[in-house]
Amino acid sequence: MNIFDKIYQRAKSNPKKIVLPEGDEPRVIEAAANAAKENLARVVLLGRTGLIREKAGKNNLDAGKIEIIDPEKDKKLTDYINAYLQLRRHRKVTYRQAEVLFKENLTYFAAMMLREERVDGFVAGACYKTSDVVRAAFHCIKKDPAHSVASGSFLVQIKDSSYGEKGLFLFADCAIVPLPKVQELADIAITSAETWVEVTGFQPRVAMLSFSTKGSSSHPCLDKVRQACEMVKKQRPDLIIDGELQVDSAIEPEIARIKAAQSPLSGRANILIFPNLEAGNIAYKLMQRLALARVAGPLIQGLSRPCSDLSRGASSKEIVDAIAVTVVRAQ
User: Are the CB atoms for 174 and 279 separated by under 8 Å?
Assistant: First the structure.
């Protein structure tokens, strides 16, 4: 049984209410219908009810188990806008500006639903850009006080691989923080370890990646990785973590014996922390496209409530995966 089978089983054991704001997107409707059919979640779609049901019918999809909410007709819209104005009062946002924002990007409505605990999580990004989804989440959902930064991780499952956790990895940050500072990089590592345990139940083994292994090169950007690794060790002495490491030293035991013989990871890392967003984003997309890895994410970390972004190229199946992972995080 692969990890996604286990995640689906866990989701079915206690389905949570998940809202998808891009309700009139055919891939989202298909994913919602399939998630509801499999009892993975209690699904809510945002959008015009008639249009969503019409599109579902044209594609022979059963929308009978899906709750549909039209934000423009919802009695809570004014309350959400007023609450948002209070949250953003330091920015002097006007009511009209907020009203337009909530109508143009329904992720804000979804995020306020989550903030008010009307739902248990949201999944968005099939049509909206990551920046739009993340901004709505940051502006509306409380940050987890235990963490200094929000970030985005990807669950990556590589078929027939012995690396990581039998082919399973968590990659971070691949979505949000372009150039993390030392404290941010340390926090991303800690948050990712927590996400890993929350979603998979496996012991985290964290590698702080770069282009050098244990001092084989010298550069200021390597100092940042080393300092972040030492910071994590002090804050979370229970975690198995090492860095800086090249990726082969992190995941290949034979290479680790040559390059990093004293590493506690022994070439068995299952969480890969990238030094910047460029490296992380490129790496996960290469794994997805060239290694045909099954990928779920970005899972937005560091907030008080669970939410997930999507690649705008996400398939219906990938959206279902994101729904299931979000349910598990909400349980």
Answer: no
Of 210, 123, 112, 130, residue with least CA distance to 177: 130
| Burial (0-12, 13-18, 19+ Cβ within 10 Å), 175 | buried
Enumerate the β-bridge partners of residue 18: 43, 121
The residue ranking higher by pLDDT, 198 or 220, is 198
| Same domain membership, residue 206 and residue 118 | no
**Tokens 């994410």 — which residue?**
297
Q: Specify if 83 maps to a domain.
A: yes
- Give the structural domain span for 56: 3-142+305-330
Angstrom distance (rounded) from CA 206 to CA 251: 10
What is the average pLDDT across 117-126?
A: 96
What tokens does 186 get? 């340390």
* CA atoms of 264 and 272, how far apart (whole Å): 15
Output the domain CATH number for residue 107: 3.40.50.10950
Q: Is residue 296 one of the residues assigned to a domain?
A: no
Is the predicted pLDDT of residue 123 greater than 90, yes or no? yes
**CA pair distance 119, 151, nearest whole angstrom:** 22
Burial environment of residue 216 by CB neighbours within 10 A (0 to 12, 13 to 18, 19 or more): middle
- Residues 44 and 101 placed together within one structural domain of the fold: yes
Q: What are phi and psi of 198, to 5 degrees?
A: -60, -40
The answer to whether the predicted template modeling score (pTM) of the entire model surpasses 0.70 is: yes
Whether the pLDDT of residue 1 is over 70: the answer is: no
For 255-287, the pLDDT digits (tens) are 999 999 999 999 999 999 999 999 999 999 999
Q: Is the same domain home to 10 and 133?
A: yes
Specify the number of domains making up the chain: 2
In 3D, which of 269, 268, 318, 270 has the Cα closest to residue 292? 318
- Whichever domain contains 251, its CATH number is 3.40.50.10750
Would you list the DSSP string of 273-294? Answer: E-SSHHHHHHHHHHHHHHS--E
